[in-house]
Specification:
The protein has one domain. 62% of the residues lie in helices and 6% in strands. The chain has a two-stranded antiparallel ribbon with strand order 1-2. The radius of gyration is 24 Å and the shape is elongated.
Length: 221
C-alpha cells in the first residue's frame, strides 16, 4: 500500500467522540499487523466531550453571573465568579474532570517499541490520530487565552462591587448600575464569542480535511 492510499484512508475529520476515530485506530493496527510491526494497545479513560461540556458550563456560569449581578445577589454572584476560574484551572491545567467526567469512554494509545542493543539514548515520538475539531480545542483556545484572565478578574470585581454597593448611596445611582450591567453583559458576550470562533474555525478545518482524500486520489492518478 502506497502513501496516497494511506492518506486516502486517514485524511478525514476524526474528532475523539466519533466512529471515524475508532475506525482509524483499527486501520492503524491492521496496517501494523500487515507490516509485521509489533505494538501494544494501552487503554485509558477518555472524556470525548470535554471541550463542549466545559465550554457550555463556563458560558452558563457567565449567564448566571449576569443574572445575579442584575438582581444584586452579591453572594451568589461572587460564588459564580470564583467557580469560573476554579473550573478552568481544574479542567485544563490540573486535568481534573470536574464536569467533563460525566461522559467517559475507553480511549487507546497504540505503542510501538523498537528495542536497540546498547542504546545511547532513548527517543520517544508521539502523534495524535484524532483530528482537532472539538469545542475549546487548544488551537482556538490560544487565540482568546490572553483575555481569559481579564474576563475572570472583571467578573470577580463586578461581584465584589455588588457586594459593597448597597452600603453607599453613590453606588446605587442608575448610571453606576448601567455600567455594571453593561460590563457583566460584556463578560457573557466574551464567553459566547469563544463558541462563535470555535464553530467558525471548526467548519473551515473540517472542510479542509474533507478535501484531502480526493487530493490524494488525484495525486495517485
Amino acid at each position: 500500500m502506497d502513501l496516497a492510499e494511506i492518506l486516502a484512508q486517514l485524511s478525514m475529520p476524526r474528532p475523539n467522540q466519533s466512529q471515524a476515530l475508532e475506525e482509524t485506530a483499527k486501520y492503524i493496527q491492521a496496517l501494523l499487523k500487515d507490516w509485521g510491526i509489533p505494538y501494544v494497545v494501552q487503554i485509558f479513560p477518555l472524556h470525548p466531550y470535554m471541550q463542549l461540556i466545559v465550554g457550555s458550563t463556563i458560558l452558563l456560569l457567565a449567564v448566571l453571573l449576569f443574572i445575579f449581578l442584575l438582581r444584586k445577589k452579591s453572594i451568589a454572584a461572587l460564588i459564580v465568579a470564583i467557580v469560573i476560574p476554579f473550573l478552568l484551572i481544574a479542567e485544563f491545567e490540573l486535568f481534573i474532570p470536574v464536569v467533563s467526567g460525566i461522559i467517559q469512554k475507553a480511549g487507546q494509545d497504540i505503542i510501538i517499541v523498537n528495542n536497540v542493543p546498547n542504546p545511547v539514548r532513548e527517543l520517544v515520538f508521539a502523534a495524535h490520530f484524532d483530528s482537532k475539531t472539538d469545542f475549546w480545542d487548544h488551537i482556538q483556545r490560544a487565540r482568546i487565552y490572553a483575555f481569559i484572565p481579564v474576563a475572570v478578574v472583571l467578573g470577580l470585581i463586578l461581584a465584589a462591587f455588588t457586594l459593597f454597593s448597597g452600603r453607599y448611596a453613590a453606588l446605587k445611582k442608575k448610571a453606576v448600575t448601567a455600567v455594571v450591567v453593561s460590563l457583566a453583559g460584556l463578560v457573557v458576550v466574551y464567553w459566547g464569542l469563544v463558541f462563535v470562533l470555535k464553530i467558525s474555525m471548526t467548519e473551515r478545518w473540517t472542510s479542509a480535511i474533507a478535501g484531502l482524500p480526493s487530493f490524494s486520489r488525484r495525486a495517485k492518478k
